[in-house]
Amino acid sequence: MAGLHKSEFENPVVNWIDTRMPIFTMMQKEYGSFPTPKNFNYFWNFGALAMISLAIMIATGVFLAMNYTAHTTLAFDSVERIMRDVNYGWLLRYVHANGASMFFIVVYIHIFRAMYYGSYKAPRELLFMLGVVIFLMMMATAFMGYVLPWGQMSYWGATVITNLFSAIPVVGESIVTWLWGGFSVDNPTLNRFYSLHYLMPFMITGVVFLHIVALHITGSNNPLGIDVKSPQDTLPFHPYYTAKDSIGICVYLLVFACIVFFAPNWLNHPDNSIPANPLVTPAHIVPEWYFLPFYAILRSVPNKLGGVILMFSSIAVLFFLPWLDTSPVRSSRFRPIYKQLILVMVASFLVLGYVGGKPPEGIYVVLGRVATAYWFLHFLVLLPILGKLEKPLPLPESISRPVVRRPPPGGGGGPLPQGATAKPMEKS
Amino acid sequence: MADTASATVRSAITTVGVADPTKRDMLKLVTGSAVAIGVGALAWPLVDSMNPAKDVLALSSIEVDLAPIQEGQAITAVWRGKPIFLRNRTAQEVKEAEGTPLNQLIDPQSDADRVKPGKEKWLVVIGICTHLGCVPLGNKTSDPRGDFGGWFCPCHGSQYDTSGRVRHGPAPANLGLPPYAFIGDTKIKIG
Ligand code: HEM
Ligand code: FES
User: Fold this and answer.
1) Which of A34, A164, B25, B175 counts the most CB atoms within 10 A of its CB?
2) Which residues of B touch A160 (CB under 8 A)?
3) Tens-digit pLDDT profile for residues A182-225
């Protein structure tokens, strides 16, 4: 019959559904037999971990929402009620609050992986850019979520961050008033942040879907950064990577549980346990740790508009990374100089994170400026030049033959036995 | 008859399809713009619903009695959800504020433009740092007031003088002035 899918599933119910709507076939193709490079290391776990994190955030968030009240006079108390009176409310909140941190650490490592192994290079540019979009949306979501408990840090974090937009010439003030729905951060602001905080994770889910669509068109990169050449280079996703991802997920949940049960307030600010007071600013306003590097860039410029522009550019530059890096070689393993520079880049990011949590004075200002300068130098100057100057190491022939064949010392056979060069075996 | 009719239709189709492509482009353009205007018109209510509502705009004026404020002290009132600093300046502070040459200021404005004539000792400013919106310290004499005797912002270190003018960045502008008027010797109405 025209249009109906010829399903190969034996279970009659599955078959009946699959014939009319082939989602089982699709899942089988994309997550079952999906050919995946066979040389993944544990860095390739972090995509799955990010998905799990998102799922955990949505699950705990939906249940928190059942007991949370988005009103300036009630929000703080409703969160306290969640902590004290609601059954397992403390667990929901601690998982949600620390889950945001887990999500960010996972995504930061995931992005580092992409950078180290050149996953942003052709043909995966769009895939990488969708990832940067997800990262930006996560930041917006986490920022608005942090406002909801309506503590001092919630209030003043919201004030400082929304005020960034007042740096825009001419229309800045009107934009800020529009964002607030009033003349300061107040009830209208809390209400809209709650609405958007609920909405955005689902938008993120949508972009994650596109991210995966793009991934399944290009196929995964791998630690060698070379293309898959034959079926011999791949394994079916299931059971090989479902198993490997499961191990990663266990470790992730273990770390997560340790934080939630033994140090749930480790990453929290004591000031956020004080109800919001619009007339008193806490002595040290510090954003959540995952924003610190960008906060440090903001503060490293003594000019308001300049700081704001630099902070947004520090992320925007990632959108251009696929074109800024001019080297055709993907993996750092074969790029002796890039391999060092990317570590300097990570170091500068960590320094920025450290500086962002310190008061903006003395040595911290200097450190912050140096690290900010390196961040931009790395992406805008070093990467474009390096691709032209650096001499990459010889690339292996294929994933199945990761060892580069050197010309044998005294002539004679190569290092691999004959069988290894035989034509790729058929995969079932 | 029927023959001629279908021939006319056919030739009309050819005309549109081949002979006159600009006509189709024009139609697409007109339709496209109409849709764009329609969508824009529908989006505006959504966007504008996020602007301050009428009740928020209505909360616009308060009266404050200045009499209890000691010389050298300041108090905070709340207007439109914002802190307003009301400071009873000492003669010395007024003199400093008036004597500062304008070319030393980041955002030049004379002290006379920031107070009401004859009421120079009363400074009324919006207590929100023009950098990123923190509330500067300095209302109490025991607070840090920065190097210029006015206010000090704990967030990123901006400093204001006794006229509420910014003297040290990163703040780009002076503390804002709310609209207010004296309605008695020591009573003002803000808003
Ligand atoms: C990308 C996913 C998400 C992130 C990164 C995120 C992040 C956050 C953060 C950082 C907080 C503040 C936690 C605290 O300090 O107390 C928060 C609170 C909250 N979130 Fe989310 N969230 C996400 C998804 C969701 C979803 C999908 C919902 C609802 C459907 C939700 C509902 C809430 C509620 C009701 C609160 C206030 C209660 C509280 O403060 O614990 N969140 N969120
Ligand atoms: S908010 Fe006052 S110095 Fe930044």
Assistant:
1) B175
2) 132-134, 155
3) 989 999 999 999 999 999 999 999 999 999 999 999 999 999 99
User: How would residue A361 be classed by pLDDT, with cut points 50, 70 and 90?
Assistant: confident
- Contact assignment for B156 to A184 by CB distance below 8 Å: no
If you search the block for the tokens 């490997």, which residue do you land on?
A: A244
Task: Flag the least confident range among A107-111, A289-293, A397-401.
Answer: A397-401
Bond prior to B170 in cis (omega within 30° of 0)? yes
- Tokens of residue A86, six digits: 């609601």
Tally: H helices and E strands in chain B = 4, 9
Q: Find the largest Cα–Cα distance for chain A.
A: 84
Contact A114, A214 (CB under 8 A): no
Tell me the pLDDT tens digit for each residue of A383-414. Answer: 999 999 999 999 999 998 876 556 555 544 44
Which of A159, A188, A299 is closest, CB to CB, to B133? A159
Give, to the nearest 10 degrees, the angle between helix A89-116 and helix A242-262. Answer: 130
Report which of residues B70 and B13 the model is more confident about: B70
Buried b (16+ CB within 10 A) or exposed e, A243-260: ebbeebbeebeeebeebb
Between CA B120 and CA B123 the distance in angstroms is: 7
Cβ of A208 below 6 Å from ligand 1 = no
- When mean pLDDT is compared across A98-102, A278-282, B18-22, B69-73, the lowest value belongs to B18-22
- Classify the C-alpha dihedral B138-B142-B147-B153 as positive or negative: negative
% of chain A residues with pLDDT over 70: 93
Tell me if A127 sits within 8 A of A118, measured CB to CB: no
| Spacing, Cα A274 to ligand 2 middle (Å) | 21
Residues A197 and A60: their CA atoms lie apart, in Å, by 13
Q: How would you class A49 by CB atoms within 10 Å of its CB: exposed for 0-12, middle for 13-18, buried for 19 or more?
A: buried
Does position A167 have pLDDT exceeding 90, yes or no?
no
Which residue in B51, B134, B157 is closest to A160 by CB distance? B134
Q: Give the C-alpha separation, B127 to A180, whole Å.
A: 18
Average pLDDT rounded to a whole number, residues B144-164:
88
Q: In the block, which residue shows the tokens 């293309």?
A: A227
Radius of gyration of chain B (CA): 31
- Nearest ligand by distance to the CA of A100: 1
For the record, the structure tokens of A117 come out as 């192994």
Q: Would you call A145 helix, strand, or coil by DSSP?
A: helix
Q: Which residue has the tokens 């470790």?
A: A251
Residues 6 or more apart whose CB falls under 8 angstroms from that of A275 comprise A76, A150, A151, A152
Residue A359 CA neighbour count, 13 Å, CB half: 10
Cα-to-chain-centroid distance, residue A353: 16
Collapsing DSSP states into helix, strand and coil, what is residue A35? strand
